[in-house]
DNA sequence: TAAAAATACTCCATAGGTATTTTAT
DNA sequence: ATAAAATACCTATGGAGTATTTTTA
């Protein structure tokens, strides 16, 4: 592979068309430039300049190379700046995984703010469930994930930043008798069949929900399992059962489903809530991730302790 | 500017993620590679690899550089081949000037044949009158020109290849009384007013035409001058006069104009004809021009002597 | 203990410098 | 006679090699 230095010498000489001046611009003397160009021509097997003692002209082959070489030099020149931008987090690439629930409000505004501040960063967004995100993080396939968990139960062994806290609501088919009431009593809800995600996909929240039933001396009746919140709401609409869902699921606007708050009767356990956290592997330390966190919704800023 | 060698070492190490193997692939030993990468990181001021005694990983900044560096290397790798293609005439650029009369039949088929054989060449075509072409050739702004001249009067001081020989026809407005005859007598034509190009733009042909008149003891009556053949034909259609034009001008398909052969009566001088030649400056010797001439219409091949 | 990166040093290839020659205007 | 490229020869930087040390899994 031909050295950069030679291409730079070629480019300058092609501009100056004068060995002396070109050498001056290259901070060297004329003889080594003569030899360098001769060497370049020798290795290419192509005459690039037409020397006529008194003047230097490009051959057609030489002229054809000029734009290509200039492109090469421009690219090479830009590389250090790119590297530095990537190191500062104002360039490079940021790969984020997110759960569908954040895709409607939280993520769009966050992305908008980030792109305005750091247009040089290529954002790669992939939707994935929480457990898939954790695998991807472990394999280094993404820089961070946005996932749901029960308050105080952010994934272990990872750094995290809580960006949203929301109550769980009950999703019901719109013609269900309980929809008559604006706030439901927990005791009325417990016997109803449930649509719920499998425990493996979101253990902390699954445990919080089933724990709620067990502390009331009941066992939840699982009518159907589904992984995506979107699917769960669709199944509720199909009247397979009720579902506990984060409040932000209301954004899905699925017709045929209504959402209700549930009131814990008497001294029952606190009703489960849900947090959304940005999680990442500490060691991966992508500096761009720090820039991303600067753009987190204001609610998160106060909570930058591990939640 | 950072050396090519360093970027190649970076690229290979980024692939192998192992100093020993990378060094092997680079045909060197491990220690200098370690130092080279350390030097690269030092000059960039950016850590590119995360070394943990037992394994090497890319930092996010390093990962961000990989595609850019690969692009750089691909470009650099391709340059020698480009140079060689340009030197062989199968690449690079060919700038041709042509007169409008060849733009209808001769040039399109020629270009088609050339592009089929040498797709790597960027053809730059500009329409220009003959005298403008000669200036452009002298300034090195085009590699060759296609222009008209009187037989045996190709521009002096230039190389040329005759690619077409055609008679001059007389263009008349369609309602002109002479159009009744299918072949005109020269004596009938000589008194008619003419539309003709200025002598400066095409001296040899201008002289041939005026010479025809003078050898019959007449002076041509110039009704109007115009440079482009297209314009001349338009002016004939506007009934400003008749015009001597190369037969290929019939391709213009201008309505309101008809073309007639003229018969020299008795012992008069031979009727003027017209040649189209490819002309170029010998010294410029663009190898691509040789490829272009290989594709010249077959009629030209036999006439590759200076015409 | 073994595998891999880092360090220390040595050497030589070559990029660049100086002096000079050639050549065409 | 002059300006510019080519040639000859010299110097020294630094890229690559060998030998060795360090480190952690």
Q: What is the CATH architecture assignment of the largest domain in chain A?
A: 3-Layer(aba) Sandwich
Rg of chain A over CA atoms, rounded to whole Å, is 31 Å
CATH fold assignment of the largest domain in chain A: D-Maltodextrin-Binding Protein, domain 2
Helix content of chain A: 40-55%
Report the sheet-strand fraction of chain A. 15-25%
User: What oligomeric state best describes the polypeptide chains here?
Assistant: homodimer
Average of the residue pLDDT scores of chain A:
89
Measure the end-to-end span of chain A.
53 Å
What's the domain count of chain A? Answer: 2
- Determine the number of helices of chain A (DSSP H or I, runs of at least 4 residues): 11
- CATH class of the largest domain in chain A, please? Alpha Beta
Number of strands of chain A: 12
Low-confidence stretches of chain A: 301-307
Order of helices and strands of chain A: HHHEEHEHEHEEEHEHEHEEEHH
Q: Major sheet of chain A, described briefly?
A: 8 strands, mixed
Give the largest chain-chain interface (CB within 8 Å): A-B, 44 and 44 residues
User: How would you describe the shape of chain A?
Assistant: rod-shaped
Structural class of chain A: alpha/beta
């Amino acid at each position: 592979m031909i050295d950069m230095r030679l291409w730079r010498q070629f480019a300058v000489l092609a501009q100056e068309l004068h060995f002396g001046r070109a050498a001056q611009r290259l901070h060297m003397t004329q003889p080594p430039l003569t030899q360098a160009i001769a060497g370049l021509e020798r290795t290419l097997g192509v005459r690039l300049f037409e020397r006529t003692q008194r003047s230097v002209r490009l051959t057609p082959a030489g002229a054809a190379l000029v734009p290509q070489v200039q492109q090469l030099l421009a690219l090479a020149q830009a590389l250090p700046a790119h590297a530095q931008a990537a190191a500062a987090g104002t360039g490079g690439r940021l790969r984020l995984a997110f759960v569908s629930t954040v895709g409607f409000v939280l993520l769009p505004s966050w992305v908008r703010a980030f792109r305005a501040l750091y247009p040089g960063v290529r954002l790669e967004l992939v939707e994935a469930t929480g457990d898939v995100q954790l695998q991807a993080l472990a394999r280094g396939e993404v820089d961070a994930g946005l996932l749901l968990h029960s308050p105080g139960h952010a994934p272990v062994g990872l750094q995290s930043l809580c960006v949203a806290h929301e109550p769980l609501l009950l999703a019901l088919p719109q013609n269900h008798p309980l929809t008559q009431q604006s706030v439901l009593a927990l005791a009325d809800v417990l016997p109803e069949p449930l649509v719920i995600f499998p425990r493996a996909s979101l253990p902390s929240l699954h445990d919080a929900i089933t724990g709620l039933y067990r502390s009331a001396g009941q066992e939840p009746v699982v009518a159907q399992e589904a992984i995506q919140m979107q699917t769960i709401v669709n199944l509720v609409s199909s009247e397979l059962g009720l579902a506990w869902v984060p409040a932000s699921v209301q954004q899905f606007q699925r017709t045929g489903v209504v959402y209700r708050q549930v009131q814990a009767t008497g001294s029952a356990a606190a009703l489960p809530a849900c947090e959304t956290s940005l999680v990442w592997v500490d060691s991966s330390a992508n500096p761009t991730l720090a820039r991303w966190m600067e753009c987190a919704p204001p609610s998160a800023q106060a909570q930058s302790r591990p939640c």
